[in-house]
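Late entry, evening session. Most of the bench is empty. Finally got around to the prediction I had been postponing all week. Sequence below, unchanged from the version circulated by S.P.
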Amino acid sequence: MNTTLSTVRGRTDHPPIPLHDTQPHEVRRVTLLDTVALHLGIALIKWGRRPLIQATRERRANRIEQQLARIERERQYERSLRLNLPVH
């Protein structure tokens, strides 16, 4: 490796901050407009992420049947593996 790294540590702290600040800080309160804007933004995001095609009752029923069939196939596969494995 041809790279030589410096062993001198650089300054990592920020400029010093006085412990007791003599000037009072202005506290910004959340206004009604800020709250309304936040809720409107969240509502728009939720609305934009909604599914465009609603699943019909039949599609949901088919999906459940497919999941149950998959679970049954996996269980049968596991059973056949356990029955056909050689015993040690």
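Two things to note before I forget:
The chain has a mean pLDDT of 84.
The radius of gyration is 32 Å.
Will write this up properly tomorrow.
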